[in-house]
Each structure stands twice: as C-alpha cells, then as structure tokens.
UniProtKB/TrEMBL annotation:
<protein>
    <submittedName>
        <fullName>Aldo/keto reductase</fullName>
    </submittedName>
</protein>
<dbReference type="Pfam" id="PF00248">
    <property type="entry name" value="Aldo_ket_red"/>
</dbReference>
<dbReference type="InterPro" id="IPR020471">
    <property type="entry name" value="AKR"/>
</dbReference>
<keyword id="KW-0560">Oxidoreductase</keyword>
<dbReference type="InterPro" id="IPR023210">
    <property type="entry name" value="NADP_OxRdtase_dom"/>
</dbReference>
<dbReference type="GO" id="GO:0016491">
    <property type="term" value="F:oxidoreductase activity"/>
</dbReference>
<dbReference type="GO" id="GO:0005737">
    <property type="term" value="C:cytoplasm"/>
</dbReference>
<dbReference type="InterPro" id="IPR050791">
    <property type="entry name" value="Aldo-Keto_reductase"/>
</dbReference>
<dbReference type="InterPro" id="IPR036812">
    <property type="entry name" value="NAD(P)_OxRdtase_dom_sf"/>
</dbReference>
<feature type="domain" description="NADP-dependent oxidoreductase">
    <location>
        <begin position="21"/>
        <end position="310"/>
    </location>
</feature>
Length: 341
C-alpha cells in the first residue's frame, strides 16, 4: 500500500512504511475512563491523520465492534491516508467476551469486521490472542485463506511468545507482532523482540505509556466503573503506592529534559529498536499532539540508562495481569514473574 508523505518518521511494516508513532483505537470506544462522544472521537482520528499518522489499529473486541464502526464513520472517506489494522479471535458476542481461534470463527469475525469497517480489505489482520485449545497452525490456515481471497493484506499476531511466532511464521510470513511494551512492561525483552528482529517482523508496542501511568496524569486509582485497570494488580494497593514513587522519579526525569512524561516513554520505546512501532491511544487532541511530539525527541544513552535504573528488574510492584487474564496470555514471563507464579 502506498501511503501519503508524512512529516513523522516512518518504519517498515511488511512492504509498507508507516508512521513510527501511530494510533491505537481502543480507548475511543472502551477500556479507560469514559469514552469520548462519537463526534469527539472522529475529531481525534482526523487530527491524527492531519498530523501525519498513517496507521490506525483497531480490533473486533474494542467496544464490541464500536471502534470499527467509528473508523468507518469518521475516516473511511480518507481510506488512502492510512494503513488499517484490526484483529480477531478475541471478540464480543451477545455482550460476552469470547476467545475462539477456530478457523470458522475467524472467518466469521473477519466478515463482521469488514462490514463494520465499510471496506472489503484490511491491510493487517491480527490473531488477537492465542487460543490454547486450537493449534496456531489451524488458526493461521484461516488467515492464509483470507489473504488468498483478497480480504486481508498481511498477517499479524498479538500477545504471543517467540515460540508461537516461529510456528506461525513457518505457515506463512508474519508481518507484525503486537504486544504491550513500555519502561514498566519489559516482557518482550525476554525473547520476542529479538525473534521479530531475526525474522524481519515489525514489533508494534501497545500501551507504550503504561496504560496512562507514564503519561504524567495518574495520581489516584479511583477509576470509573468498568475501567480495565481496576482488576490489574499494578493499579491495586499496596502495589499502586509503590509504583507511584517510580512514576514520580520518571516524571522528574522528563521535567529535567523539558519534555512531557509521555514523550519520554514513547522516545524510550522507539529507541529500543528500528523495527518497533508505537501505538499510543488517546481521547483528546492535546494529548495526541503531545504524543506525536516524541517523534522529535532523541534520548542520550545516559537518559536511557536512568530510565532503566528506575524500572530495574523487580522494581515494579505487582504482575501485569491477574491470574485469570494471564492464563489467556502467551507472552513470556519475566524471571520475577515466574518466581511469583
């Protein structure tokens, strides 16, 4: 896909080059705090494209399809301006969250996504999670057939291990691996970051601002009902108070550099490798503009070392997910997480 010129730096994803800082669409429809109105969400998306963002990342799960419908309504008239990604396997059916990697389910999910998006083609389609009841090769077979039918362009994986990546890649080349990555979530460094570099797979970092924790705005864990951070151990006491002290040190470092904490976090993520693309999400245009300002930030080795010292192994209190959610995740655990298991 040939995308328009962008003032933002670009990085390769398959045969395309997209903005190194792109846009994750999840919190325009659910997850954090109160979602914006449809009109405000549309304004954020269009402003992102105006500023040079050339990749919008959605999923069937987000808002029970609401994210895909918003993209259709808000920016389908600008379809040539962005690389479109969405996901399957995780879905919301009849109000219930479903994890199903069977080929027939993937095929049905794709048809529903195409309809919601108002398109006949998705540039990058991810397996959102590994369904441990279905061999990855079977799920990949459905993705390959979708590509052969001309419904998707590239195949991606999300929240999966280096071992699963290699098994999937043996069926068909994987274009992108998406996983959580930020100064306080370092799991990709165990194996999958290197595996992506070795295989020529782009690594798409979601939650590069640590679910808002490294954006300088969270001082309380008094979240609104339904916020997905409520059951996350790192946002619960006594862990939360410990982690706030880490955030205070991080915020002070950003202030010393005369940049925002969000810019510091994003610049750190992008500095970890040339194959990494960051997809922060936001509900507001000021935060969007601040995030994109990270594209012009270059961190010194001393600053990177200072960040790594703040978030040294074992410094962050609490696991990333509770036990029930972690059971659905295929990513590698850190040594300290394995000790807690």
């Amino acid at each position: 896909m040939t995308l328009p010129a962008t003032p933002l730096p670009t990085r390769p994803i398959g045969q395309s080059a997209i903005s190194a800082i792109s846009f994750g669409c999840m919190n325009l429809s659910h997850a954090y705090d109160v979602p914006p109105s449809e009109e405000d969400g549309a304004r954020v998306l269009n402003r992102a494209l105006d500023l040079g963002v050339t990749h919008l990342d959605s999923a069937a799960l987000y808002g029970g399809g609401g994210s895909e419908r918003l993209l259709n309504k808000a920016v389908s008239h600008r379809r040539k301006d962005y690389y479109l990604a969405s996901k399957c396997v995780l879905d919301q059916i009849d109000g219930n969250r479903v994890l199903d990697g069977r080929p027939e389910t993937i095929a049905g999910s794709l048809e529903r996504s195409l309809q919601r998006l108002g398109t006949d083609y998705i540039d990058l389609y991810y397996l959102h999670r590994l369904d441990k009841n279905v061999p990855i090769e079977e799920s990949m077979g459905a993705m390959v057939r979708a590509k052969e039918a001309g419904k998707i362009g590239a195949i991606g994986l999300s929240e999966m291990s280096a071992e699963t990546l290699r098994r999937a890649h043996a069926v068909h080349p994987i274009t992108a691996m998406q996983s959580e990555y930020s100064p306080w979530v370092r799991n990709p460094e165990v194996a999958v970051l290197d595996a992506c570099a070795q295989l020529g797979v782009a690594f798409v970092a979601f939650s590069p601002l640590a679910r808002g924790f490294l954006a300088g705005s969270i001082t309380s864990n008094d979240f609104v009902a339904g916020d997905i951070r409520i059951p996350m151990p790192r946002f619960q006491e006594p862990n939360f108070s410990v982690n706030l002290k880490l955030a205070a040190r991080f915020n002070a470092l950003a202030a010393d550099l005369d940049i925002s904490p969000a810019q510091l976090s994003l610049a750190w993520v992008l500095a970890r490798g040339p194959h990494i693309i960051a997809i922060p999400g936001t509900r507001t245009i000021p935060h969007l503009e601040d995030n994109l300002g990270a594209a012009s930030v270059t961190l010194s080795p001393e600053t990177i070392a200072a960040i790594d010292a703040i978030f040294a192994p074992g410094a962050v209190a609490g696991p990333r997910y509770n036990a029930a959610v972690q059971a659905q995740i295929d990513t590698e655990l850190l040594p300290e997480e394995m000790a807690q298991a």
